[in-house]
Specification:
By secondary structure, this protein is of the alpha+beta class. It contains nine helices and 19 strands. The protein is about 25% helix and about 25% strand. The strands form three sheets. Strands 1, 2, 8, 9, 10, 11, 17 and 18 form an eight-stranded mixed β-sheet that branches. Strands 16-12-15-14-13-5-6-19 form an eight-stranded mixed β-sheet. A three-stranded antiparallel β-sheet has the order 3-7-4. Helix 1 runs parallel beside helix 3.
């Protein structure tokens, strides 16, 4: 197997890596994706909450509807638990059965012609005159690092590395329902989530509840999920004493794109490239878009129709979200949020972040007598 030759080897079978591989394979190129996990649905680090644009990506266009649940509203809570309900006509978020979605994506790209090697870790790669040799895999004209925020490709090959993180914990509760299941519940609270927020949403299989906070190098503080669940229980209806059926946790990049992102026919994509919103830490849509864009650029480069500069046109500046990230890190206080949550300027900022200026304040549902 070590003598296999490919047009591209992609390290990492996440959203970005599989989106890139799909573009390459559907244009007739020979591509191999390797991932250290034998089961793509195990040891997940992503929430699996999709913005509507992500569902329109080619990789997810055919996803079975049973793996998705539409969530048409956002309910945003101040620290004192007062809230506003936001929405936009025709716009939806989607929660997923995330492990099943990852397995489905792996099977789907295989039908597109991708060779997917599960249980194959990336150890190292060396440059030859005409290709990259990846230990235990083979040779490739280009190498793509899509192996997450702690990218081994970036570390081994001297590319830029993510240095700013959030630390998040998410619980899954199977077979239970929220009091308001058609909303993505987001909680701003410096005590429980300094530098970020807590969230709760109905999924196809139950409820997911998460909490993330700013991570500092050498820090040992982890999110207080027990305290958070007890704090929000009156709003959500989820028992604070119920034990989760599964737990996932990990670092979430929030510093923006890394530099350098590429050299000598190797390029980073997705979380490995820091292609995650510095403010919201949303990386699925960005990863899908970046992976597909780099895939199309590689198709042109490998066919001789473009030069080697693969990544520059696909890198957003994130200027506005970087500024808000700084404010969240240095000027987050609960009292002003309690006062300003329902104010029009605050709502406009939230609407822009959630619905790309299409949103608005939505009346609370009328409770039955």
């Amino acid at each position: 197997m070590q003598d296999q030759r490919y047009d591209a080897i992609v390290v990492g079978a996440g959203f970005a890596g599989l989106a890139c591989a799909r573009e390459l394979a559907t244009h007739g190129l020979r591509v191999c994706v390797i991932d250290r996990k034998q089961d793509l649905g195990e040891r997940m680090h992503t929430t699996g909450i999709l913005v509507q644009e992500a569902c329109d990506a080619p990789l997810l266009a055919g996803v079975p509807r049973a793996l998705l649940r539409a969530v048409p509203h956002v309910r945003l809570y101040a620290p004192n638990l007062r809230s506003v309900r936001l929405g936009a006509d025709g716009y939806r978020f989607y929660t997923t059965d995330t492990p099943a979605l990852m397995r489905w994506m792996g099977e789907y790209v295989e039908t597109c012609g991708v060779e997917l090697r599960r249980g194959q870790a990336f150890r190292n790669a060396t440059r030859t005159l005409t290709s990259w040799h990846v230990d235990g895999v083979g040779h490739a004209r280009v190498l793509v690092g899509a192996d997450g925020a702690r990218s081994r490709v970036a570390h081994r090959l001297g590319l830029g590395q993510v240095t700013q993180f959030l630390y998040g914990v998410e619980y899954e509760f199977d077979g239970v329902a929220l009091r308001e299941p058609h909303a993505l519940h987001c909680f701003i609270n410096k005590r429980f989530a300094p530098g970020y927020l807590g969230w709760m949403a109905q999924t196809p299989t139950g409820v997911q509840a998460g909490l993330a906070r700013r991570h500092h190098p050498g820090g040992t503080q982890v999110p207080d999920m027990a305290g958070f669940l007890h704090h929000v229980a009156p709003m959500t209806g989820l028992s604070a004493t119920r034990r989760p059926d599964s737990i996932r946790a990990g670092l979430i990049p929030c510093g923006g794109p890394v530099r350098p992102m590429q050299r000598e026919d190797v390029v980073l994509i997705g979380d490995a490239a820091g292609m995650v919103s510095p403010l919201t830490a949303g990386g699925i849509h960005a990863g899908l878009r970046h992976g597909a864009t780099i895939g199309r650029s590689l198709v042109r480069a490998l066919s001789g129709r473009a030069g080697p500069h693969m990544a520059s046109s696909a890198v957003p500046a994130f200027a506005f979200k970087r500024a808000l990230r700084w404010a969240f890190d240095h000027a987050q206080f609960d009292a002003p949020v309690n006062l300003l949550l329902a104010a029009r300027p605050t709502r406009r900022v939230v609407e822009q972040l959630c619905f790309h200026r299409r949103g608005g304040l939505v009346p609370d549902p009328v409770e039955p007598d």
